[in-house]
Specification:
Layout (H helix, E strand, L loop, with lengths): L3 E5 L4 H16 L3 E6 L14 H25 L7 E5 L4 H11 L4 E5 L5 H7 L2 H8 L4 E4 L1
Parallel strand pairs: 1-2, 1-4, 2-3, 4-5
Amino acid sequence: MLQNILVPIDGSENAWKALEAARGLAEKYQGDLVVLTVPYGKSGMMLLSMDQEVIKNDRKELALIGNAILEEAQKRLKDFAGNVSYKLKAGNPAQTILDQAEAEKCDTIVIGSRGISGIKEFFLGSVSSKVAEYAKIPVFIIK
């Protein structure tokens, strides 16, 4: 355990805290990191449209956002001694995180809590809660 840690990040403060926590665990146990971002549209909601041009523009915007998040992660991990891989994926965030953890043969997930509550969480759900509920490996949720 703690040899191949998946760290999903979305650019939020809690995601950066999760990255630091994962880094600490990886350094302590000589593990590797898989840093994943799954940009999911404005305000956490993928824009739905049948217009192919709108879809194409949304994908470009999400790719730009995702790449910027990964670049920031690279800066924060520049002096990390272990191996790090960076992944940009599209799709449902919780399912994509679970799929990537399996594909990368990760033994742990360290994820930041989004911090949503109340009615918004009821309708949107929490990515970290879904990941923790359905993951087959240990999940650390960082607040």
